Amino acid sequence: MSVAASELEQIARLARLRLTPAEMARLAQQLGDILGHIEELLAIDVEPDQAAPLALEPAVARRRDIADADPLTRPIAEIAPAWREGFFTVPRVLAP
Amino acid sequence: MSGWEAVIGLEIHVQLLTRTKLFCGDAVDFEAPSNTRVCPVCLGLPGSLPVLNRGAVELAVRAALGLGCTVRRESGFERKNYFYPDLPKGYQITQLERPLAVAGRTDWGEAPVRIRRVHLEEDAGRSHHDRFPHRTAIDLNRAGVALIEIVTEPDLREAAAARHFLTRLRRLLEYLEVSDCDLEKGHLRVDVNVSVRRAGDQSLGSKTEVKNLNSFAHVERALRYEIARQTRIREAGGTIASETLLWDAEAGTTRGLRSKEQLDEYRYFPEPDLPPLQVPPADVARIAAGLPELPDARERRLRERFGLSAYDAEVLVADRSVAEHFEAVAAAGGNPKLAANWVMTEVLAWRNERGQDCGFPMPPERLARLIALVESGRVSGRLARLVFAEAAATGCEPADIVEERGWTQIGDPRALGGWIEEALRAHGEQVRRYRAGENRLFDFFVGRVMRLSGGRADPQRLTELLRIRLEE
Amino acid sequence: MSALHARPATETATAVRAGRISAAAVVQSALEAITAREQGPDGLHAFLSFDSETAISAARAVDALPPARRGPLAGVPVAIKDNLCTIDFPTTCASRFLARYRSPYDATVVRRLRAAGAIIVGKTNLDEFAMGSSTENSAFGPTRNPHDPERVPGGSSGGSAAAVAAGLVPVSLGSETSGSVRQPAALCGVVGVRPTYGRVSRYGLIAFSSSLDQVGPIAANVADAALLLRVVAGADPRDATASERDPAELEDTRDSIADLVIGVPREYFPEELDAGVAAHCHDALDRLRALGAVIRDVSLPHTRHAIPTYYVLAPAEASSNLARFDGVRFGERAPDAASTTDVYELSRSRGFGAEVKRRIMLGSYILASGYHERHYGRAQQVRGLIADDFKRAFDTGIDVLFAPTAPAPAFRFGEKTANPYEMYLADVFVTPSSLAALPAISLPIGRVGALPVGGQFIARWWREADMLRAARALERSYP
Predict the structure, then answer these.
(1) With an 8 Å Cβ cutoff, are C379 and A41 in contact?
(2) Among C206, C371, C477, CA closest to B269
């Protein structure tokens, strides 16, 4: 199994990764290899209802509608890579 | 350009009236300074996890039931993956494959409109592109706020019908206390899907999706524009490209997005951080039992029970609290038709002056007593308005106000006769002209006498006596 | 007598609660040992950060408490895998992207440790974002195996396992997505536990694959691992996947295992299995038999599909979980980003290492249209089949399964880095139970030369008590 370069480029764009040609070449080969191993799954005999979901606990109680947010122990300004007057900032996004 | 028919479906995002966000405990508060109603979860910080707000499920179920949907015993959440600076986690938690509710129906227009689905999802933050030069400013106070998306089947055929549907939908959601539905604040956002086909054709052509519709009026205008545009293209033998368009309200046109944005692929998959959402039938039954009377039913009942006109019923029912106020006035003994008039005029005017959430000028029982004073003739309609204003301002009893001010209506012929004589004496010239055939002067005399009586003269008795005196 | 800090956690906590020793002295001793062992070019590099001042002031706070309130882990030095959020240490996930990140909140497990009187002494090394089986994928350099400095400690919780194996701390926390606690525990010769999925809160554990991730304890002995598990387990209102079950059910003080039926899955003993590993496993089974347990052969036929299944599901979830590392709100933003696309692409491309990018690409590919339906859906089904295998085995009356943890002892640095799939196969015996959400424990069962060998017990869902009892009994059988 191999992955076409054009396909990889599109996936890299979707994943917001900018990869060098060397990285792309290596990935084409490695992903092809891994995907080749994954292909075997298609050959397994699966009856639709045989594969039951994991038998874990039923859904636990959901949150009540009361303000109980986990407080931040340090100001966001210390965490944010770019912060100005109470806002995160990024280079201007062209309005759609 | 006849012979073409539009096929319209709506997708409506509604902000739910929860106190806190859909997946974390931050208060929903849009007045708060930017980025102050945020926590690890809605900031999308590493390691944080969503936990579903029970209150949001409750409201979403109310909405779904109001739209006649079937609430599914088990639904689930998916991740919609895309990058945008105000989308903190790089995905939106929504329901794609397993929506909360399906298969509803509304009967608000000429034909029913089926509801395909109602599902829960979280809102994104807000991007401010004009706040700083060359920068986009991001506020995440809104990130994670609970929304429902309501999707109709493509059952609408006209732009005006779509607008009518939305008006009714908003009224329903307000009744259900599911949302404030304030369009200006973005509580209710509408996207439309539209295609055209030859009348009678049953197939669906390729459609366009139109976004950026900030009011119901814009929905209607954008649909008219888009229907005309598509019809022109089809008439000329062209084909419609399936694409997402933005409504440009200033230009009054739709335009395409840049092609790059169309490429986004959302790579949906089941949200592993949230177990399936179970809504047991008993919960659905409890919520259904707690629903208020829906506006359609209430309109019908007001017409049938109180003999109100369709117009009056619609005006009263448009706002749930107004309808309830009217019914309370009627229940307290106020003549229903008079009560309807008072509520539609004085009460609504009082409320309009004060804006949302202002309450009511007086308790319904008090308004009923004021109406009774009018009905019994103790106070004239004209003075009653003054009594209303004073009762609203001071909280005093109408009867006491009438008493104190001496505003009781006077029907006594001797008193009325005295004022009539005084008026005629003072206006001999007009009396002469009236008697010479200038009939329209009658109201002039009524006005003079009223003024002399301080507004207290019983208008009916006054008219009778005045006519007799002038005909002499 | 061993150094203060290297005594079993159960003993240390008892002594601190009784006031016989001070938490500060224990922690001081641990930090001296860490400083000595981490230093120099031959240093262990188990830690990405440690800090005497923070740890000792926390220890003094415990000492200041009345004895009754000092907690079940009073004064016990604990090392924490650096993918668990802490407010007082950096939280880097061994990634350049988070090189300077300071979490503004504590993970639930960290809060529970603090409340129990444990003292966090530092954060341990891992494969970047827990993606790996050798700790070689750390952006800050690998950790050495304390038993052989030329070899890997396993991974991804290699730092947590090495820190315990080197006697720097008695206990540590790691995390498993698929074997990342058990495999390094085996390669380092210590005890590592994977709890049932949902037993321990994931709040504050930086997600790799949400449907698989679980926090697990690492310790020098089974009792300490059990104690740590008991402290961190339990319902959490901030994690919807954390179970409401009472952690008290983890307790089982019985010594006898005469009532236990132990299954031996034949798929876990293939021909390629390292001969030394196989021999130690058979020896362990002999010991278990001698202790009165019934040993029974069993088959888990879908075992061989676990790795491909895992490499569909885990990267798919990871590609989404790692989308939040976009350079907008936290972490390292490329300073030369001129557009929002630059912010994303440059920050991510520079912030992530090769294995992380590989998995993001793989996961995005799998979730993208065309591939998604066929492979993702199928992998979900096969995951169900794998769980069914276990269920069937347990339904025949088997209480726990016994198998090797890793197919071979610790490998050399660089031995498996050329071929990612080779590396993935190091997890072949830990992946099926991970996919099935089962609890398991790895413990040392011998050595091949200087290198430890680990064996694992896999128990029924929520029956950690059974595997802990079996592990304790087997542990006691060794001199």
Answers:
(1) yes
(2) C371
